[in-house]
Design goal:
Structural class: mainly alpha
Mean pLDDT: 95
Number of domains: 2
CATH class of the largest domain: Alpha Beta
CATH topology of the largest domain: Rossmann fold
CATH architecture of the largest domain: 3-Layer(aba) Sandwich
Low-confidence stretches: none
CATH superfamily of the largest domain: HUPs
Distance between the termini: 54 Å
Number of strands: 4
Radius of gyration: 19 Å
Number of helices: 12
């Protein structure tokens, strides 16, 4: 596990960074999607501390892939961080996704998954507009670096508080902050279909992903050097490197085509 060297310092940096960002943007209210999973729980806790619970809105957007336990964990966290019930919104999104599915004469599993993520973001931005708030993203660095998010879905946010923390570091932060153990230990999942687990889809565990990101991107090791240090097959790490490369478009603004209009 790649841990955080000084979690108290990092937590303070994130909280202060969020306050500065919101002030510079001219907003003091936040809206975020709370799934009951690790990332969104840590993000909600940090947001509530940075802006105050009464200026934080937690939106629960369950779909057919959302287990009952996730909703129970989300409600427990809402109580723990003292977000007022007036700032809690629960809206099921399956009917909206099914309408899209019907309009397209049926979608594949992955098309429906991406539509689910994008419908959630539409809902969050609509709520944020009503509340004069910004949409806080819950993605972590591991997901960002390997492109494990939906473009214009969970990637379509205003700010990413834990975007510099690797997945294993987010777990460390959750434990440091005293979040419920069920959340700290919960397997990562976007919950885009029943039984959806991130590591099963990726085909590799986050401990491997995080160590490779740290060695390859932060320390500049080649794939072969990282493989030797980690004891992980080169083929596994090359697959991760390829995933990083082909998902680069997700981490950049859309390119403009060069021309000379004047």
């Amino acid at each position: 596990m790649v841990e955080i060297r000084d979690p108290e310092k990092v937590k303070s940096q994130i909280v202060e960074g969020m306050r500065s960002y919101f002030k510079s943007a001219g907003y003091d209210r936040a809206v975020l999607g709370l799934s009951g999973g690790l990332d969104s729980s840590v993000t909600l806790s940090l947001t509530a501390e940075a802006l105050s619970p009464r200026k934080t809105t937690a939106v629960l957007l369950p779909s057919r892939g959302t287990p009952k336990q996730d909703l129970e964990d989300a409600r427990e966290l809402i109580s723990l961080v003292k977000v007022p019930q007036s700032n809690v919104i629960l809206t099921r999104i399956d009917r909206v996704v099914s309408t899209i599915d019907s309009s397209l004469n049926g979608m594949t599993k992955m098309e429906r998954a991406n539509a689910t993520a994008r419908v959630r973001m539409i809902m969050l931005h609509a709520i944020a507009y009503r509340k004069k708030a910004l949409v806080v993203g819950t993605g972590d660095r591991s997901e960002i670096e390997i492109g494990f998010f939906t473009k214009y879905g969970d990637g379509g946010v205003d700010v990413l508080p834990i975007g510099r923390l690797l997945k294993t570091q987010v777990r460390h932060m959750a434990s440091f902050m005293g979040l419920p153990q069920t959340i700290c230990d919960k397997p990562s999942s976007p919950r885009l279909w029943p039984g959806h687990l991130a590591e099963k889809e990726l085909g590799v565990d986050y401990e491997t992903v995080d160590e490779f990101i740290h060695l390859h991107l932060d320390q500049g090791m080649s794939v072969d050097e990282a493989s030797a240090k980690m004891g992980t097959p080169v083929a596994v790490l090359k697959a991760l490197q390829t995933r990083m490369s082909v998902t680069a478009h997700k981490r950049a603004l859309p390119p403009t085509v060069e021309c000379d209009p004047f």
